[in-house]
Write a structure and sequence with these properties.
The complex is a heterodimer of chains A (384) and B (390). Chain A is of the alpha/beta class and 384 residues long. Chain A folds into two domains: 234 residues, no CATH class; 120 residues, abc type-2 transporter like fold, CATH 3.40.1710.10. Helix content of chain A is 68%, strand content 9%. Chain A contains 15 helices and five strands. Chain A has a four-stranded mixed β-sheet with strand order 2-1-3-4, with helices on both faces. In chain A, helix 8 packs antiparallel against helix 12, helix 11 packs across helix 12 and helix 14 packs antiparallel against helix 15. The longest helix of chain A is centred in the middle third of the chain and has 32 residues. Chain B has a four-stranded mixed β-sheet, with helices on both faces. Chain B contains 15 helices and five strands. Chain B has two domains: 233 residues, no CATH class; 107 residues, abc type-2 transporter like domain (abc type-2 transporter like fold). Chain B has 390 residues and is an alpha/beta fold. Classes of the chains: A alpha/beta (384), B alpha/beta (390). Chains A and B meet through helix 2, helix 4, helix 5, strand 4 and helix 6 of A and helix 2, helix 3, helix 5, strand 4 and helix 7 of B.
Amino acid sequence: MNVRRITAVATKEWKETVRDRLFLLMSFLLPVVWMVVFGYGLVLDVEHVPFAVLDRDQSSLSRDYVYRFIESRYFDYQGSVSDERDIDRLLGDTAIRMAIVVPERFEEQLLEGRPVTIQTLLDGTFPLHADTLKGYVIAVNRAFTQERITEFLTRTRGLVPEEARRLAEPVSLETRYLYNQEVRSTWSMVPALIMFALMVASPLLTALGVVREKETGSIYNIYSATVSKAEFLIGKLVPYFTISTINVVVLWVIAVWLFGVPFKGSFTAFFLASLLFILCSTGIGLVISLLVRTQMAALIITIIIAMVPTILFSGLLVPVSSLSPGAQVQAHLFPAMYYTDVVRGSFLKGLDLKAMWTDLLALAVFAVALRLVAYSLFTKRPKA
Amino acid sequence: MNRNDGTSLEAVRLWTLRLFVMTRKELLQLGRDAPLLLFLLYSFSLSVYVSGAGIAMQLNNASLVVHDGDHSESSRELIHRFHEPYFRFDGEVRDPKEGMARLDQGTAMVLLDIPPRFHEAIGSREPVSVQLQVDTTNAPQGLSAATYAARIVGRFSSDLTLSRLGAASDGTMLMPVVDSAHRVWFNQDQDETWFQSISHIMRMITLFAFLLPAAALVREKEHGTVEQLLVSPITPLQIMLSKVLAMTLVILAATALAMVTVLKPVFGVPIKGSVALFFLMTALYSFTTAGLGLFAATVARNQAQVGMMALLVISPMLLLSGIATPFEAMPSWVQTLMALSPLRYFVDVTYGILLKGVGLELLWDSMLAMALLGGTMFGLGMWRFRRQFR
């Protein structure tokens, strides 16, 4: 190990990066653009669901019932239809995601104290979405039912409304949402986006840095130089590591200042984990770059490897606990999951180093293992 | 006249031949990149299987811990109603604090807290409430858990009402209850493997359709081979078109592979609409996305730059076009912006043909939008490409 030689490689790499203005601009701009666009734009809340109504009763009570949906922020009324065939067409064209069919004699039955069944037709293309919609409909029905029962008991049994209401709802549920009181998907999303930005951009920077030399042949200068394998690999990393570290701080500032996500944990723990994670993500890029020959392959493989598991298996959209056992194994084999835990833990839960040491340890193990793999794959004596 | 016809026919033949030769060159070049080819195969087979089988976004065995301050018949009855597949009972805690600690560590998602005197309150007809603490670091899942819990407690409560009134009245149990019968269309059992595997294929098509031709064009620029092509009788149109053609063929083959090896046999996705139409639309979508990629390639000078531009363009497309979340839930500015994303239309087309079984009569507008976008991008790319090499 010779610090001078490492500095030489790093300087060369740094100059190469800085001279490519577009590339340099993108490497700072991309994470910020992602953060802002996805932070504001990637909304996971099921709201404004377009729906249509087929009211076969046309009574004041049925209109009152339908109105509950119209005024709710979860639904977006698209008008009423008079024929069930119209519903087929609207669902098929994705103009609506749900249709409510109120049966005939809706009002009459309810006033007589008889149960009524509403039909809801749901678009099942997005299963989670359909499931959430069912929940909303059931909640509307329950509130409506309680009012009807209260009214019915007051009218037929002569109870005072207060008593009737107590009878209509003997046990209630008080729900508290922890860590994210308003259940804003922005709050769960923005911290995880720091992970996304680091995971997707840094491997690409690193991978192309190495493969470019392989493809243009300038790597033969390295092969014939006195610089050792380890020195070369470390020197190569310095510029990309520096860029990513700056990005961590910038992203943290955006999350806290622009999005107002509370940062409750320890910054030291968060920063330490971020550095380890950058070592992991650049390490992935390094390993890929040593396995392929062309920049085209490096580009495509890195982007897909970085992007797909990051979207699916890192906890960004789906919590790891609800993956199938096979997919959970895959999630654990990928460093992004541990870092997502740390980021969300530091931001929303206010956890400190003690509570998250296992995640940090895992990241450290990945960082070291990826380096070792890269070291053993890299050879200064290429075949043929 | 006749001779004239002959020469123009000859010109067409030559033009097509050149295009064909260039396309073949692209395919050969791709075929020799073994790591890339292997990765392509993996992306459209095993990877589709893993994401289809592995991801369940619906609430599934949410880990539940209970603090039962009452230990009575009623509290046990209520706890008993929290069951699989929505909740998984993960033990009882002696103290709500202990439960909170488990939520902090992330080893439990929901804490149900039943107060002391729960049974007594129910017996004496006092209103009583139970507490629920939900981890909402992942907002949609947390909300879903809360909704299911509310459903369960609501049912428990209304059962009590009915039994009381039943006991109190003359035996008629009729009450003005509004219930709903749900019918889920296009995917009755809400089978998530269909949704996840189809959306994964769309993800892969997008990535490859953008990256393959873009990288192929920039490579030629970087190596300088594009100058050689331009001094040859081949026109810039043929250069660009051949790359799109070759990569579209590859993508269609890969999509077919995914359908034949995973979608149909493993997940049993009912391909309700016309397969031919689906492939036609996939070809159109590949062409459109390739146009986007080629445009980026004319802006970039090397592959690193094109990679960064791909990330800039593709990641919003993948996350905001409505693959993983329904499009209408996005804020309106995103919807406006994403009108430019061809994937936004391809999502409707794919789900429409594969799951809903609709045809061109409903999908023509999406098709038109893709064709317009693709034509525009391809034209812009052409224009820049020509200008660069004048």
